[in-house]
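hiii so um. not sure if this is the right channel but i have a protein structure encoded as tokens and i wanna go backwards to a sequence. like what aa goes where. can anyone help
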């Protein structure tokens, strides 16, 4: 049933039509929330530094986290003291917010929080309350810019810049809201976006699509010893590729673009791997994303596991637009 539902997020089937009344209820509730903030019945909390939200209008892997990492790194090179806030999805911490450290257990704060912390070497705070998260960054870490991974629909925190990422392949799906479609809010919500980013250079296009983001593979390293390997080593035989991502097919195609013969293994997004998930009836290499690798360091036989390192690449005009927006707010 779930597979039919999600397949219908592109081309609607009977399950999606049956769920349309729930989508209408969802739209009504979301509309009430937006109206309350618009009329002042609810007020967004403003923190004393600029806030950049990198969000999406659809569920799934649009590419927000890689873009957050790229933005945070760029802000650091420009002399800012950025920090990142994130929900910490599937994190089981008993207290929030949490300042994420390199040795923080992934089970406590979630895979994406550890991924960002390792990638940017900047303060990262995880927690469900965006306002508390931002305040911790400012008060404990002396950050002068807050970058929020997701949060476009979390209106309680005032933001100075809304960046919305749209997957070029998936687009806006069937155009319906949850659960009949993939939209987190009606398409008119895109009007709140200051900058739009399209993940990928083909597929979904819009006259106001804005900037294009390219995901580029930097290299592949062994999970056990961290050593980089020559890509030619992996082209001798097929390779297993595992993905617990919002859009696993994009990851698989990237590997095939390198000339690899990929055996696909899909898991639900944010899946925590067990040893059995990665045991196959051969000794072929097993490739995975950095997000997946975060959860596999303590598993046995990591010598046959390989991490595919990738980054979001943006053109200079994207960063200039962010700089202009920050200049108006500081």
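sure thing!! here u go:
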């Amino acid at each position: 049933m779930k597979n039919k539902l999600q397949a219908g997020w592109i081309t609607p089937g009977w399950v999606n039509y049956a769920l349309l009344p729930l989508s209408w209820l969802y739209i009504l509730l979301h509309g009430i929330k937006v109206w309350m903030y618009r009329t002042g019945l609810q007020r967004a909390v403003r923190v004393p530094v600029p806030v950049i939200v990198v969000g999406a209008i659809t569920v799934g892997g649009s590419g927000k986290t890689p873009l957050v990492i790229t933005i945070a790194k760029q802000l650091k090179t420009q002399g800012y003291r950025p920090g990142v806030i994130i929900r910490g999805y599937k994190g089981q911490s008993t207290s929030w917010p949490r300042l994420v450290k390199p040795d923080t257990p992934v089970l406590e704060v979630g895979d994406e929080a550890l991924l960002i912390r390792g990638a940017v070497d900047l303060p990262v705070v995880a927690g469900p309350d965006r306002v508390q998260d931002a305040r911790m960054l400012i008060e404990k870490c002396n950050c002068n810019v807050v970058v929020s991974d997701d949060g476009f629909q979390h209106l309680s925190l005032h933001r100075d810049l809304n960046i919305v990422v749209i997957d070029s392949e998936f687009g806006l799906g069937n155009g319906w809201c949850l659960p009949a479609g993939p939209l987190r809010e009606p398409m008119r919500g895109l009007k709140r976006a200051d900058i739009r980013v399209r993940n990928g250079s083909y597929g979904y296009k819009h006259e106001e699509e804005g900037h294009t983001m390219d995901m580029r593979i930097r290299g592949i390293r062994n999970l056990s010893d961290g050593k980089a390997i020559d890509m030619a080593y992996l082209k001798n035989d097929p390779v297993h590729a595992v993905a617990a991502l919002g859009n696993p097919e994009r990851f698989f195609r990237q590997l095939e673009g390198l000339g690899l013969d990929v055996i696909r293994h899909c898991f639900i997004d944010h899946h925590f791997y067990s040893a059995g998930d990665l045991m196959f009836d051969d000794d072929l290499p097993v490739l995975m994303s950095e997000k997946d690798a975060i959860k596999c360091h303590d598993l046995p036989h990591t010598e046959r596991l390989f991490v595919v390192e990738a980054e979001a690449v943006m053109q200079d005009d994207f960063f200039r637009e962010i700089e202009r927006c920050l200049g108006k707010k500081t």
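oh and The mean pLDDT is 92.
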